[in-house]
Amino acid sequence: MAAEPVNVNEFQELARQALPKMYYDFFAGGAEDQHTLRENVEAFSRITFQPRILVDVSKIDMSTTILGYKISSPIMIAPTSLQKLAHPEGEIATARAAAACNTIMVLSFMATCTVEEVASSCNAVRFLQLYVFKRRDISAQVVQKAERYGFKAIVLTVDTPRLGRREADIKNRMVSPQLKNFEGLLTTDISNDKGSSLEALASEIYDASLSWKDIEWLTSITNLPILIKGVLTCEDAIKAVEVGVSGIIVSNHGARQLDYVPATISALEEVVRAVGGRVPVLLDGGVRRGTDVFKALALGAQAVLVWSLCCTSLSLSPSF
Q1: Tens digits of residue pLDDT in 143-168
Q2: Which candidate among 25, 66, 105, 280 keeps its CA 20 to 30 Å from the CA of 127?
């Protein structure tokens, strides 16, 4: 009898064995040479501790508060799209896991379950991740629906004017399922005989003109606090605070967008210093162990986000 997995890497191997190659490559892969995908993990390994001894640790409280919501530990669930490719219950199962762990789930804009389905599945605190489409009315409708259904914040992804070149998806001719939040609003059934239909879909619907001025547009359509996801420099961190965001997520999209950008843990301290405590700074990418979480906290993050597929403890790269 095989031993039970005891860490995230072992869960990832189980996923590789269980999923069709096209789907596993989609969840686990990065852009181009995948240099940053490897670096996201390896950069953590180059950070070591200076432990202090004889400190009373008999009572430990790992809880923290994010935008006023108390969670059991500084580990949140990052947005991961197309989760029904990995589990028939998709994002609903992940939401229930978040509720059971008393943490925050960020629902992907490109989910395979609707905002309504996830909202009605459990009492987890939920944020909505947002891509801005060329058809702004569609993005606005989903944001406002999330607000009506009790979502607590919007996480605007800002590093995806175009989809990164994910060569495994091109080779596998990755096919996107219908995305339920957009049924009746637009078709996501776009084929690409020469490569990934996901890339073709993104080129068709994502608004490549998105810029800083559009934060004002977003604040005009919702009362929810806005976090931006995809910050890697002090300059962008300062600008984000100036335009009034409520939080920053240091992220390179799990190394799925622009290869050869810094590992997120390498960029974290620069962003934290620039923000100066004015808004919370979170981090995603490369987190595989509790020691990685501790390293991020020691460098100034308030919490980390991990990609968890359908209540497994499975932490893969971010989807879409």
Answers
A1: 999 999 999 999 999 999 999 999 99
A2: 25
Tens digit of each residue's pLDDT (9 = 90 or more) over 111-135:
999 999 999 999 999 999 999 999 9
Q: Is 253 annotated as a binding residue?
A: yes
pLDDT in tens, 40-93: 999 999 999 999 999 999 999 999 999 999 999 999 999 999 999 999 999 999
276 is known to lie in a ligand binding site: no
135 labelled binding-site residue = no
Which entry of 43, 253, 281, 316 is annotated as an active-site residue?
Answer: 253
Is 287 annotated as a binding-site member? yes
Instruction: State how far the Cα of 240 lies from the Cα of 160, in Å rounded to an integer.
Output: 17
Task: Please say if 35 is a catalytic residue.
Answer: no
